[in-house]
Design a protein that fits this description.
Strand order of the largest sheet: 1-2-3-4-5-6-7-8
Number of strands: 8
Structural class: mainly beta
CATH class: Mainly Beta
Number of helices: 1
Number of domains: 1
CATH architecture: Beta Barrel
Radius of gyration: 20 Å
Distance between the termini: 56 Å
Largest sheet: 8 strands, antiparallel, barrel
CATH topology: Lipocalin
Strand content: 35-45%
Shape: globular
């Protein structure tokens, strides 16, 4: 291979590497325990919250009158306490109140939560911090 071909090949590989890096991290693994649909009936059965975590890092959530689409990033493995750090970014929502009467922040706003799965992987708790002191749920996996 002559010098010109080697130079073009190197330039092509560098361009490809920067394009791959710009595309961001890969989607959550198909095997990640959060992928799927989760539901929780709240307030004595008067309201249902359902979250559908998709493989492409988008999430569809319904809670009371609220319908929202978010993107999400989640740790691949739990921390020492068994919590996965979850960052949700609002993409769009219908501006209606959720089960607690609150409305979501504007698109682009982020929320950080910490989730912990049951040993069987069929339930999850959602917490404000990586501790069991401020949590809600459990949300149950919907087959």
């Amino acid at each position: 291979m002559n010098d010109l071909h080697q130079l073009l090949l190197a330039a092509s590989l560098l361009a490809s590497a920067s394009w791959l890096h710009a595309a961001g991290p890969p989607p959550a693994s198909f095997g990640h325990p959060v992928v799927g649909t989760w539901s929780w009936v709240t307030f004595g059965g008067s309201c249902t919250e359902t979250w559908q975590f998709r493989h492409n890092r988008t999430m569809l959530g319904t809670s009371g009158g609220e319908v929202a689409e978010k993107s999400y990033e989640i740790a691949a493995t739990p921390d020492a306490g068994g919590f996965y750090r979850l960052v949700e970014t609002v993409v769009r929502h219908n501006d209606k109140p959720d089960c607690s009467g609150a409305t979501l922040p504007e698109p682009g706003e982020q929320t950080i939560r910490f989730i912990q799965f049951s040993p069987q992987g069929d339930k999850l708790l959602v917490c404000r911090t990586a501790a069991l002191s401020a949590c809600f749920g459990p949300l149950k996996r919907i087959p």
